[in-house]
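User: Run a structure prediction on this.
Assistant: Running it now.
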Amino acid sequence: MAQNYSLSSRITRRVTLSNGPLRLVIERTNDLRKRTPEVANQNYVVHSFDSAQMYRNEGEVGSTILRYLSSKENTTGLKREDIHFTSKLASNSSYDTARKSIKQSARQCGLGYIDLFLLHSPYGGKAARLASWKAVEDAIADGEVKTGGVSNFGIKHLQELLASKPRVLPAVNQIEVHPFNTRTEITSFCQEHDIVVEAYAPLARALRMKHPVIRSLSEKYSCTPAQLLVRWSLQHGYVPLPKSVTKSRIAANGDVSGFEIEAADMKRMDGLDEHLVTDWDPVDAD
């Protein structure tokens, strides 16, 4: 029997996301205003939103969430605490600069607090990374942020942070992960240290949807290639962050509880690794 995965089932005790059915859609675009109500009225309500200082949409996402929560379209009575909002620090720097920047993000989104705040990359060097993490810790202590994490961190960056004896351990590492770029060493390190792997670009930005193995297994499991890739990520224990602007695809991306990839097929998909990088790749930065 296929396991009925939910987003919360893939989160450790230090991270709390929305409960209920699988919530995989993470919104990065700036046209939320016209699309949030129509998406939220379906049975695949979007509970999790991924923003960043770099995306320049923290205010847009926050205001749209608040507008929907107070509208008549909110027929299920969702509250602020049912929403999970993520943002990220654009660049690592001095403590004062990073602390000021996080405060600005908390104000900009208008949601009262940020559920998950990440260092967007390891760029900037050791001193800047550790100073910026201290700013995240203080933002958590001050109630502006609930949980802290990192993004695009390689093993050496994670080891560096853990060795610094932080007051708050990183709960998440958001990195590009899919069968064509498995990042096995990084993901294994994260799981060994109780760090949740959030897999961005889990669909490899549709660059391998027609790969013979993906097509063959999609037919075997009567699913779409995207559903197969999402399911692969979940079965590895990751939190996949698929992105789509199409309602039908948003719904389909979350509808993955009706099948389970067999162990032999998981291994076959693991073997597709070609270190395909579809975005930036800072994991080896100094």
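The first helix runs from residue 32 to 40.
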